[in-house]
Amino acid sequence: MTTPKYNRVVLKLSGEALAGNDGYGINSEVLNSIAKQIKEIVDLGVQVALVVGGGNIWRGISGTQRGMDRATADYMGMLATVMNSLALQDALENMGIPTRVQTSIEMRQVAEPYIRRRAIRHLEKGRVIILAAGNGTPFFSTDTTSALRAAEIEAEVILMAKNNVDGVYDSDPRTNPEAKKYETLTYLDLLNQGLAVMDSTASSLCMDNNIPLIVFNISEEGNIRRVVLGEHIGTTVRGN
Ligand code: UDP
Questions:
Q1: pLDDT per position as a tens digit, 20-38
Q2: pTM of the full predicted structure?
């Protein structure tokens, strides 16, 4: 079976996913492994929009915990996502995959600004787009960016890559050996049960726009391809 189930996807990578076991910064081995996995789905003809977080470098919350102004700390977080996006662009282009980085905060010497119709055109031409700087607004997360951009570019699904966790559990599987994995959930379940998959703003946006989400483990090589081919791994979250 090599016909992909999806034609256009948003792949959300947390900043942590790029740090690997280092816990901070960008681990080049991990970066190349992720790029290789992305190439596998590009080779299947899938249109890929990447949204990358910044938690491996800076999160707004780390600033506020040190007494910083929230908006300033959040802008720093958005800049961290730009560094990650450039690293991903470099790794992907080394593998011969054409890419474009688009930023929600204008920085013309570094990348294009995010323009929806242009983003769609890049996808149609087979380029991987990397959407950097979140939504360009403080008080949001890159999970909300994934939801927002998925709605805008009419992606069929958001693939949420997790590090060493293969789905959504009722409690933390790393500390509770009895933790139960969910096969499917609704966004209302996430909101009602306070399951820490994505923040509530992002969950609501996905729910209201009926965008399905698949949470899966990216640490196992080949998993992005498996998900895209429709293999049931991880947890699927739906609008109803
Ligand atoms: N951020 C923001 N607005 C956005 C997206 C991100 O202010 O639209 C900031 C926020 O401070 C966040 C940081 O950027 O903590 C990094 O993003 P995120 O925490 O989503 O990264 P991840 O947890 O996925 O690595």
A1: 889 899 999 999 999 999 9
A2: 0.97
